[in-house]
Amino acid sequence: MRIALSLLLMALPLAAAKKPTPAQLQAQVKRLTEERDDLKQRLAAMEALQQEAGSARKARDLARSESEAARKELELLRATLKENQGGSDAILKEFQDAKQAAEEARAEATRLRAQNESLQTKASAVPGDGDLVVLGEEIQPARPINLNRVTPRIKASSFLAGRPKGVVVVNVLISEKGDVLASRLLQGLPGVSPEAREAGEACVEAAKHLVFDPATSKDGKSRFKVWQGVGFHLD
Fold first, then answer.
1. 146 has which bridge partners?
2. pLDDT digits (tens, 9 = 90+) for 90-106
3. pTM, to two decimals
């Protein structure tokens, strides 16, 4: 049996007629994974920012509405107090409550503006050492050190079944120190047979023993935590 291991960043399609080479599979997975992760990152950041900005706008509009209502009520109370020079404790209390409500509305509007500015700053912030980032053009991917020495332990389910063949892709969470913190199946062998399931589990377990040079910034000054794809070509 020959096991060829190659670093991949997303699921690889099975060959329709002619089985692709491991190098071809690796190139396809790397390209597709980079495109997918970049789109996911952009979409997630855009959706999160839109939702947060929308919530901030709604809260701001609500605060403005409440402030305007308090202002009108305050003006009404002032007119009432002018007509009733003597006033009463009840009217005075309502006046004080309206004044407090207006102040609270202004304070809430100020808080929401600061929160919105903070969200915008966070969205454009540059990641630092140890941050979890999505691979992109500005990030150097992690490089496996012991890839050729890690072998998935797979046993045939029966004497006649033979060993499963194909490509299994595992997503691994790599720390800023190059250690694998978690692994999960990204693409298993086709079908729902026990052999396919066993192959996926074996590759997930094998990926936990990989060691990497961590992902870094282009200038190599910062190290990041990333999810990356690792492809196991079972032959």
1. none
2. 777 887 888 888 889 88
3. 0.46
**C-alpha closest to that of 170 among 116, 219, 217, 227:** 227
Identify whether the C-beta of residue 74 lies closer than 8 Å to the C-beta of residue 99: yes
Asked whether residue 142 falls in the same domain as residue 228, the answer is yes
CA-closest candidate to residue 75, choices 51, 94, 59, 53: 94
Number of domains in the chain: 2
Place of tokens 């309206």: 98
* CATH number (domain holding residue 96): 1.10.287
Tell me which residue has tokens 């006046």. 95
pLDDT single digits (tens) 12-50: 444 444 677 888 888 888 888 888 887 888 877 778 778
Residue 71: domain span: 44-123
Is pLDDT at 11 greater than 70 in this prediction?
no
